Amino acid sequence: MRPSIRTLAALTLLVPCARAAAQDIPTGDSTVQRIYDEGMHRSHTAKLAQVLMDSIGPRLTGSPANRAANDWLVRTYKSWGVDAKNEQYGTWRDWTRGPSSLTLVAPRTRVLEATMHAWSAAIPAGGVTADVIIVPPVSEFTDSAGFARWLTGVKGKLVLASMPQPSCRPDSDTRFWADSAVAHHAAALRDSAVTEWGSRFTAAHISNRAFAAVLERAGAAAMLTNGWSRGWGVDKIQSARARTIASFDVSCEDYSLLARLAANGQHPRVHAVADATLAPSETPVFNTIARIEGSEKPNEYVMLSAHQDSWDAGSGATDNGTGTITMLEAMRILKTVYPHPKRTILVGHWSGEEEGDIGSSIYAADHPDVLAGLQALFNQDNGTGEIDSVQTNGFIDAAAPLARWMSRMPADITRNVVLLMPGVAHDESTDSDAFDCRGAPAFFLTSSDWSYTDYTWHTNRDTYDKINFDEVKRNATMVALFAYEASEDPAKVGRTRRVPPVNPKTGQPARVPACDNAPRSFGATLKP
Hints:
The structure is a single chain. It is built from 17 helices and 19 strands. It is an alpha/beta fold. A nine-stranded mixed beta sheet has the order 1-18-17-19-16-14-15-13-2. An eight-stranded mixed beta sheet has the order 4-3-12-6-7-8-11-5, sandwiched between helices. Helix 12 (399-407) crosses helix 16. The longest helix is centred in the middle third of the chain and has 25 residues, at 180-204. The chain starts with 12 loop residues before the first strand and ends with a helix.
């Protein structure tokens, strides 16, 4: 998903929950107390997360690890007596990461910090040792014809295709230590570098996005890029743009080293290894669906929602292993304490979210019965922090039941939660959107940032150790309480949508997101 966006506050009313003593159950409901005790005092979150993040690891859509996570979820649910299945929604390219490395061999030796991009092509066994070159400044080619002449020298080379940063020190650190003049100068240097780098592609009449295909046609050995995330030692590492040549993200510091060597005529040479296997045909991809059958209203549904797929440079911990564990643990709590809900409780562990909410969109399109009977869906998808807001996403009658349900929870669960009401139709690229756009009441539970935006979202540092389990167990307990209250409520949540308000930034009515026609195969994304 994209990082959490807080600008919605301008179009919503923020209502903080009241505070009270920890564990004070306002209603005296013994089931609420038992849910709280099970979730807060007998949590399984750390044990479950260790298996998912450390043993299974990152879960790139279509990969063997993605399928392993599906199977592990089903086995885990069944061990608790919860009905679960893997439901195929399509096919996707099947890619397996192997060993990869970059080693500077001239003018000195250094093992470089680098990660092969997802779906990168491989380099033949044994690797390749090649010169490293960088797109030249405009002064060296001036126009597209000059750029074409430069391309004749690309064959067999490793090409630096991103802007080298003037400094890999975070701007926040510079502002903290420097006086204002020095800080402003550092910011100006970065702005100048951005402009100058862009001018190279403008003069060549080529976009950055199209550059990978240009390098492939020119016969480059590999494409080296940097996706610095503006923090210490952290890059955003997603999918390869090139399809027939290897593609690496190189850390900000080592990428800048290579760029300086190349720009100053010091002839860097690198030995590159990239072992990867792309299956010859697409393979099935699945959502994992679990359910606890309703005892009184089995055709009405409360649904828990999180995507289990991830990018694969880290371990997929905070995006969205934590959401996956939150929903898994919430179902364990409910099965232990509340095994006979009034409404059917479902959970969707989606795949294909990182490619555009594909798994959840296809499930929603294929299950009109669930949409028709949906009481509420609770989706979580942004990091390890405690849930601090509930977005009602433009359902104008949703705030009252949500507030009522939260008022029945222990105060240390809801202590920092803000209810955003009535909200606006949501389009932040997360799985609740697939249900909202079809008129079904789905709510997004957003978490406090915990440096998610810069340090763990889609990065090489999104690993198990970044999880705070005090927060995750509280989130799982809250979700279990939401499911219980929504199941027990005799009234259905209304579906009237808010008329889109005027966006104060544009002066135009806010756009109501339309449902995507999600592709059921990777091949479908390639068709014109």
